[in-house]
Every structure is written in structure tokens, then in C-alpha cells.
Amino acid sequence: MNVDEKYFKIIxxxxxxxxxxxxxxxxxxxxxxxxxVSLKTVDGIEKAIKEAMQLQPCINEVKIMINREMxxxxxxxxxxxxxxxxxxxxxxxxxxxxxxxxxRMKFIxxxxxxxxxxxxxx
Amino acid sequence: MNVDEKYFKIIxxxxxxxxxxxxxxxxxxxxxxxxxVSLKTVDGIEKAIKEAMQLQPCINEVKIMINREMxxxxxxxxxxxxxxxxxxxxxxxxxxxxxxxxxRMKFIxxxxxxxxxxxxxx
Amino acid sequence: MNVDEKYFKIIxxxxxxxxxxxxxxxxxxxxxxxxxVSLKTVDGIEKAIKEAMQLQPCINEVKIMINREMxxxxxxxxxxxxxxxxxxxxxxxxxxxxxxxxxRMKFIxxxxxxxxxxxxxx
Amino acid sequence: MNVDEKYFKIIxxxxxxxxxxxxxxxxxxxxxxxxxVSLKTVDGIEKAIKEAMQLQPCINEVKIMINREMxxxxxxxxxxxxxxxxxxxxxxxxxxxxxxxxxRMKFIxxxxxxxxxxxxxx
Lengths: 122, 122, 122, 122
Fold this sequence. Notes:
Chain A is an alpha+beta fold and 122 residues long. The first copy, chain A, has helices at residues 3-7, 13-32, 42-53, 68-72; strands at 36-37, 59-66, 81-82, 88-96, 99-108, 113-121.
């Protein structure tokens, strides 16, 4: 079956790149929020999240930066926290037939919200 | 702050509708996959998932159909299963300033994959 | 197959009740953390979480209280938040052959941590 | 605050080990089910899951084995799958003051269910 022909013919190549990047950003957030994380494990979990999400259709690269500063000043005696939206800065690079969309998520202080938006399309 | 002005000016209104619908579809799948579900609880969990995802930006409506047939023939003596991709048929209706995108997810037997695609844009 | 006989003969009935309650508490937290929630949807999501977790082995009842006060004072313009550990107070009632364990989770300010503990066994 | 004194005095040391191991097993399952995984990424995700769950109280070690055979024969053209219960074999080693509990999860064909049980306590 030609999936692109059958399921995606009503949108442009540029829209397809945006679509796939957006799916992956929503997926990443809701899959991994809640995961226990500490300064000691943060490199490994970043790498695993990146590799998992790069498996999804059209995803060239995922850059994920978990805020180390928030892990350094853990008030909990347990020395780890549940991964939350305010700790994350993520870029998803999604490409479909030469069209590249860069989807970004970062926590916007003014909104008190981890905003997902389209940073660049080319 | 005008969020639309600041973060979304590089994409069209139509692309914005597609973008927000795709985020919600990826989010829904990865938030709720794994949830225990049975014939007795399926109506309630469908409603809760629908209401949760309708909170997200631009989402007008979410229609979620969990396959009852798969719940009727549970081989497990435990009479429930973990929600999985092959049980789901979902439509997300996303609208931005008069542009409506219908994002669909259903399990495609031929692909053995829960495909997310754009069913309609108007 | 007699599951209890085969897989649980090395622990007491009291331990079994504690075991099953603890599984369900860990499961509940990591399944639903991240779910979008607002004052409008909080009753429905509480009910759905309760019903889902009551499907698990030995679980008689789940009482879940999401903090309404935190939902009333949403600073985000989006009028909803991702469910997080500091918003939750949960009791899981787990029973095995007359032995009842009450597992509790609540956010302990002093620890800055959503502590899971055994509140009562009888 | 002495957490053990305040919150755990009604259970034995052995019960505490079982309790903490069970929480971690329930947590692991519901946090990571749904994660995209392939033969190429399976080593990394196993390591990240192990490290994340070892952060939890009393957890000495987590051994997680994702079934490679199921990843080798992917019918999907997408060459990855969502992590599911039938792919997992997990051991959680939980210790509290000299009492060690080994909690196991594996998929039992006869039950068609990923059973969590206590394999050993010493």
C-alpha cells in the first residue's frame, strides 16, 4: 500500500512535515512526563527519549534539554523528581520530501505553560 | 502577550489547525495507552479521555471509539486489558479561525499500525 | 491454573493485600500524571481513574481527590493544567481473603514529595 | 522528619520491602507502556528505564528484558512498535534494612496477562 497516496493526499508536503512533528511533540510530552529523573540519570533519559521519538515517521532528529538547574536544587530528600513540563526544552525536526519543520516546546514563564509551536519551516 | 502573533506567525491558519490537532492526537495516544479497561468501564474512560483532550488549544471535539468486541472476548481471567493502539478509532476536530482539520487515528490491518492522518481540512 | 497457589505461596495474605495495593498506587500515578485537567473536567477524570484502577486484582475501592483549589487559581491562560503529584490525595483499598490494606498517597510539604505509604492494615 | 517512623511503623521491614518493590513495578509498567521501541533502540531504552526506576525508595536494582524476538519480526513497515506488556520480563530488587524482596513481572501465556508477583523474599 502507498500510505502517502492513500492517506495524505489532501495535505501539502509542508503540512505533512508540520503534522508529523506535532504528533511527535505531543507524544513525547505525554509519554515521558512523570518519569523519575535525577542529575545522575538525566543524560541517559534524554538519550533514550530522543532515540524513541526519532523512530516516528518523518522525524530526523529530536533535541531534548532537561533543566539541570532544577535537578541541582532538589528540595526533596529523595534526590529525584518526576519529569514535568517546566523542566523541558525540546526541538523536533520533521522532514517530508525536502520540507523541514522545526517544532519547539518550551515553558513560557509569562503563560505558565509549556507551549508547543512551529519555530521554523523551510 | 499575543501568543498567536508571537509564536505562530510563520504558519497559515490552516496549518495551525492541523498542528494543534496533531499534537492532541499524539498526546492522547501516549497519555492513555496502558490504562486498564473493561466492558464495564469503557463508556466512562471514553468520556474522560474526550473531555481531557478537548481542553487543549483549538480542539473543538474529540470522538473516541474503543473496540467493544475486543473487550467482549477477553481471554484473560482478569476481565480487563491495558488499552492498546489496535483497540482505538479516534477523530480530533481542531479549528483555528474558521479552518477546521479532522485528524484521524485508526489501526490499519495491512500496516499493523495505528496510523494517524489528516482525514479532512475545510 | 491456580494463580494464588503457583505465584503467591511465599507471602502471607496480609502481604498480598499490601502488594496489590502498592502496585495499583504506583500504576495510577504513572498512568495519569500529565493528563490535562480543569475545574470543568475534574469530576469526570476522578471517576474514570477510580473505575480503571478498581479493575486491578484485589482492589475493592479507590478514592481519589484532585485538589480543586489548585485548579481555581490557574495562572495559565489556557485554563487547564497537567495533572501532577502535588494535586493528588489517593486511597487504595486492597483486600485479599479478609485482609484489608489501605494504601495512601499524598503530597507531604515538608518532603516536597508525593509519599506513598501504608495507612492501615486490618 | 523521620519518614519511616512516622509513616511506616504499622508494617514490618519485610512488608516494607514488598511494598516499595510493588510500587516500582506498577509505576514502571504504566510509565513506559506505549514507548516507541525498535531493535536499534532497545538497549538504550532498557538502560534508561532501569536507571529511572532505581531512583525510587528502597530499589537496589531493576533488571528489564524486552523481547528481541518480537522486535525482529515486526510486521509494520514502520520498523518499530509501542512497548506492550507481552514484550516485558522484569525483576525489581527492593531492600529495606536487610530484607530483600524480588518482584517479578512476566507475561503468562495461559493467563494472557502480564502477571506481577513476589518471586522471592529473604
